Amino acid sequence: MPITSEKQSDHRPDAAGDVLPLCESQLFAGVGDGRLAELCDRAVLSTVERGSLVYGPFDTSDVVYVVAQGTVRLASADPDGRQLTLAIIDAGSVFGESALLGQGAAGVFAEATERCRIYSIPADRLRAMIQREPGVGVNLLLSVGSRLRRMQELSHELAYWNVHRRLAHQICMLAERYGRPTLSGDVMVARVFTHAELADMVGATRQTVSECIATLMRMGILERRRRRIVVRDRPALAAFGTER
């Protein structure tokens, strides 16, 4: 079974409520209901608990995954156990595309960051759909290209930026992705991110991230409300660390 979680339940997505998230995925935009129904006949919908692996760094798989509910992170780890988050996969997004090329995980693992429902779609069925529906292939390329571009940016940041600048930039991106305006005109990151999770995103220690956020809060650039990050001064956050 591709999903390696010990606590999971699997079933065929035959109910309307199960199929709906797949229909709403950007990957299958423009695909008719009939074609999607054929694909769903071979898909498996699994529940994966928080902290469980969808696949390990050296696993091989012949399925592609689509997140129906929850969030999955793609990450790598060095021999000392230090982790680096490479991407966050939200509901409706695809991952594990290397199965289409018959490749393994290449040192990357996928972990549920909250309780998730995930579709496993056989790679051969998805290849067949791409042949019949070229738009699916275009959507897949756009998704993979965006993720590869971010990984290239992350490599550049790790090589040339200090931790303060990397963290500030990461929080800016989270605010753009998950931000919600507040009554006071600030932007609240709607998802909770711990200091340890932020540290894995920027290649730093939790202690360093905690100290940096404390500095940003003293400066009035950030605030914490109900455990969520609130950006009070976006230009100052974007500039933080650029002169260190």
Describe the structure.
- By secondary structure, the chain is an alpha+beta fold.
- Helix content is 40%, strand content 24%.
- It is built from 8 helices and 13 strands.
- The protein has helices spanning 16-23, 33-42, 123-132, 134-160, 163-178, 195-202, 206-218, 234-239, and strands at 8-11, 44-48, 53-55, 63-69, 72-77, 83-89, 94-95, 109-112, 116-122, 179-181, 187-189, 222-225, 228-231.
- Strand 10 and strand 11 (187-189) form a beta hairpin.
- The radius of gyration is 19 Å and the shape is globular.
Given helix and strand content, the structural type is alpha+beta
Separation of termini?
49 Å
How are the strands ordered across the major sheet? 1-2-9-4-7
* Structural shape: globular
As a percent range, the share of strand residues is 15-25%
Number of E-state strands: 13
Biggest β-sheet description: 5 strands, antiparallel
Low-confidence stretches: none
Element string (H = helix, E = strand): EHHEEEEEEEEHHHEEHHEEH
| Radius of gyration computed on alpha carbons | 19 Å
Proportion in helices: 40-55%
Number of helix segments?
8
Mean pLDDT: 88
Can you describe this structure in just a few lines?
The protein contains 8 helices and 13 strands. With 244 residues, it is of the alpha+beta class. The longest helix is centred in the middle third of the chain and has 27 residues, at 134-160.
